[in-house]
Specification:
Elements: H1 6-16, E1 21-25, H2 29-33, E2 41-42, H3 45-48, E3 60-65, H4 69-80, E4 86-91
Parallel strand pairs: 1-2, 1-3, 3-4
Amino acid sequence: MALSNSRNNSLESKASAPRTRTLLDVRSPEEFATGHATGACNIPLAELATRLSELPRERAVAVYCRSGRRSALAVELLRKSGFSDVSDLGGLDPTWPK
């Protein structure tokens, strides 16, 4: 599902650049199922520490969640785990999806 408003379109364009970036959604599987950025993979924040091997270290990682709190924590964890090119895209607009 593509994102539908200007803030989320901006999130999607930042994350998509050339396909050298992994777009990581750290919301719950239930939240992810309600809608997510095109091409995003879902690893909930609570599982991220044990699933780091699923993320390619040679690619940049762009992280988002609903409000920005979990994405900030995920970025901190990724950097402490040796991921060097990590960006926090913050949270989805609360009006998306409708």
